[in-house]
Design brief:
The chain is of the alpha/beta class. Helix content is 51%, strand content 13%. The protein is built from 13 helices and nine strands. A six-stranded parallel beta sheet has the order 3-2-1-4-5-6, with helices on both faces. Helix 7 links the parallel strand 8 and strand 9 (155-162). The longest helix is centred in the middle third of the chain and has 29 residues, at 166-194. It is elongated. It starts with 5 loop residues before the first strand and ends in a 6-residue tail after the last helix. The chain binds nicotinamide-adenine-dinucleotide. Residues 10-16, 33-36, 39, 54, 67-69, 73, 77, 95-96, 121-122, 124-125, 243, 246 line the site of nicotinamide-adenine-dinucleotide (NAD).
Amino acid sequence: MSNNTKVGFLGLGHMGGPMAANLVKAGYEVLAFDPVPAAQAQAREDGATVVATAAEAVSASDIVITMLPNGRIVLDLYTEVLSAAKPGTLFVDCSTIDVADAKQAAELAAAAGHRALDAPVSGGVAGAAAGTLTFMVGGADADFAAALPLFEVMGGKVVHCGGAGVGQAAKICNNMLLGISMIGLSEAIVLGEKLGLTHDKFFDVVSTASGQSWALTSYCPVPGPVPASPANNDYQPGFATALMTKDLGLAASALRGNGVDGQLGLLAAEIYSRFNQDEAGKDFSAIVTDIRKRSGEEPA
Ligand code: NAD
């Protein structure tokens, strides 16, 4: 894809807004649509051409990126706009959705004579703004190659994971493991508190021992050892509990749908779902405060 490529961008929220802005900055003509007026105004300010309907954005574009809240909305939107697209348009869905929905979206696009990739991201709003997202991509080699220059504008790392749906698979496998490991780490920290182990000594030992994890060394859920972690900022996200709960729900659905005996994944989904009822806006590492509360511990 060259900079003459016209990009349709549907969904200009926390993630899609800055991603579209980076494409504009890189010289792409971006035809943008979102039903929310504030998102439209921001996109206009960022230099995108804001159009009145999703179909209008799609009909004039060579490649269409979607960044939407969930799989139902992605499938409904594909159903609505596929017939408006030029034959062979490349649809790239960057939303985090169910693997089965991602496969269905690719099938819908193919049946309408188009091409499709699933390309969920990690890196959050900060990564979207900085153009340093990680893209995990599923789909055909040629389609991946065609979209790569755009991924390289919006991201810092791009991995072609496999065929349709396998990008979403990488995303939910990683986040399931992260959710499980944050819960496990937090249980160990609260147990240590009960047994008289300070956070500093816990970190000193475990960060270089066999219990080491990214959750501890880069995202420590208690204040102190990792100054940049959300624990030092009253658990402002970061990665909100609502998003972790969503991703664990997708992982649970994939575990069940594929007959995997993923007991910890299912339990992690349950634990975060309960925490999410009161603390959806807190960073997911605040689960340590919930474990402490349920253990009858005062905050350390
Ligand atoms: P968001 O709610 O801020 O943005 C979604 C946007 O989609 C909204 O502006 C909404 O108006 C728009 N939208 C809804 N229906 C539409 C339609 N029919 N046509 C066009 N636009 C429509 O959500 P977000 O935080 O930007 O997340 C988007 C996706 O990225 C989600 O799937 C999320 O799980 C995933 N994600 C988010 C983060 C994060 O940190 N926020 C990180 C990684 C992945």
